[in-house]
Task: structure prediction
Amino acid sequence: MAKSAKELFKLHRLQEDEPLLRGVHGNYLFEIEQAGSWFVAVNDGKIKVDEGKHEADCVIRCSEQDFIEIVEGRRNLLTAALQGRVQVRGDISLAQKFHGLVGTLAERERGAA
Amino acid sequence: MRAKPVSALEGDTFVVSDRRGDIAISPEEAQGLFQGDTRFLSRWVLTVNGQLPNPLSTDDVNYFSSQFFLVPGTGTIYVDSPLSIVRQRAVGGGFHEELKVRNHTPKPITLDLRIEAEADFADLFQVKDAEFERKGKFYSRIEENRLVLGYKRDQFVRETWITSSAPTEIDPKGLRFKVQLEPHGEWSTGLDVSAAVDGTEGIKTKPKYKDINDVPTPNIGMSLESWMAKAPHLRSSWADLDRIYERALVDLAALRFFSRFAPGEAIPAAGLPWFMTLFGRDSIFTSFQALPFLPELAASTLQVLGLRQGTRRDDFREEEPGKILHEVRTGELTAFEERPHSPYFGAADATPLFLVLLDEFERWTGKGDVVRGLEAESRAALGWIDQYGDRDGDGYVEYERRNNETGIENQCWKDSWDSIKFSDGTIPPKPIATCEIQGYVYDAKRRCARLARDFWGDPETATRLEKEAAELKRRFNEDFWIPERQFFALALDGKKRKVDSLTSNLGHLLWSGIVDQDKADVCARHLVGTGLFSGWGIRTMAEQEGGYNPIGYHIGTVWPFDNSLIALGLRNYGYKKEAAQVALANLEAARYFDYRLPEAFAGYARTDTNFPVEYPTACSPQAWSAGAPLLYLRTLLGLEPVGERLLVDPAIPKQIEWLELLGIPGRWGHADAFGRGLVDLSAPTKAQTARDAARPRRAA
Result:
């Protein structure tokens, strides 16, 4: 289990070519409170992660703890957004893709376990 | 009998009020301003000099607006009212209300006008279940010319902002106006009530309309006028049919909304007031019904449902990889995971129906790019059917809820707890494999075989799916058939026993095509026989069954959407007269509901009541009921895409002398259809003829 957002982005289980994101084109900016910002560009399954802020199609802002729990599949992105724990701006369908991706990764891990 | 409430809606915002325009909740009345499954106003009451005015007239100007004409009570019918009051309200992102008072006397009048306002921020589930326990804290504050009513639970914040264009005294319980009216003078103010949601962006915090005469612009940016103009034009000898059709189109426009899952795609919400949200099954059926008329609904439904397809095993939400969602909610109980609707996946039929709609969409529109774009989602859905849908490996899709606290017990379209019953009225043990779901699976596999061959370049999968579909059909016709009662079992229960009630589900089997030809006659006969057919439509359960109740939600009522699919199923098997009979009965019933078919109505026989009896809590408008007249028109005109052409093969009852539908959109561009009413419903039907032929003849 990752201990920090930085570690998650650095050692992310996302592959550079993620089949689950084929057909997806867009940029994410993850603004993780008191941890930093990460820009993730997705181009038909090819992923590039940069630390820092850039203009993005979908901005997801939350605490580090919530972010880790979402990525680990322990917290639901929608309920976190409804509660006000996560702010999602821009292209919500991209956020949904992210939600589906972390779900599949969690399922993949469950299968591998 | 209570006066009917007045509703106005746009997207997932709606207002239910009384005939004064007031919102005053009670255990009997679920009134309020609702948005995102939250009640942002639970009290909105106008008084004049401390008294409630009397309603004269109410007008639903448009689906998103309403007007109320009131007078102060004079206490006697012999004294004319010196004043009239008009409230004009337009809904969208909250609402805008114009409040006008006119002095009809030659003397000045001073008035004390007050609007009482409260917000309980109840989750729609709490409203429905009359639960009042709240875990957050309420607050109010008065800002410059604005009353803010709020509710906070941790970081969950919902606020209602109320402003007035005219000077007002604001207190935590409402707004007060000291009105000086000149002789024959008029006073007015504009009241804005905004549903302010913190935590997510994109939620508008000001009312959409500033004037009730604004041109309605449904959220997809197409005006109602354009929406109506885009749909095929209907003309017929039966004026009622024209009205029913127009009502259906307006209701479908009204029920469109943007899901926060896909803000660019307008999809049909299920129905007012309880179901102003995305339902997988409802959106699919509605889109299917509307395909020959408004194919864009199907396109967006497929995209949105595909986007939020299940990816993981989550027992709380009953999510599984490849499964299509059942219902989405966004209120407090969902936010804090006290309800599983984020989204909830407790439907065993939505996944095969998604595939059925995808194929049907391509057949009508020729948009192969959508089929190619949804290949991964379709394959995942097919995978769900075999891996998760068939829970015990017996070759049938069955359901049993994994969420025992808040999950749905029956995960088929008849989703009330007691819908699946043996003929003696007893409830069978789970898991349940209802018959119609097997029909949907058969149809989905057969259709996906075509898609795999023609669009996915995968003939091996196509051949496999065809074989699986054929094998499913063969087994189903053996395993579900009840020889002694001559119909298909409603379901197989947890012990693989046949649940032996006669129900409308037979009609869905015809629609799916899973019924062997030699069993179709007897199915058609049952469907239009006196046990199931009330005279106004086909009951969900036949009246001779132990579980039958004419006002039971799924055990005796008549559901127009159900009937519309059955009519098409009858038609597909060649029972044109029976299809026309069902269609006409339902369309005639619509005349008693202001030309709007409700979610359901009571199953009393037409010979007993002479008019269709209302079901007490039916939603209206309901999307798939609004879609029913559209599917009836398709069935009566015999509209079928054949390659690049539209086949027209009318079978219209004599009661409708003629009808024409102009500008039917599809892969052919636009086509016209015309038919004359030549079907004589008083003559024996094909099913009756077959029955008579099969009946043993008495020896001479």
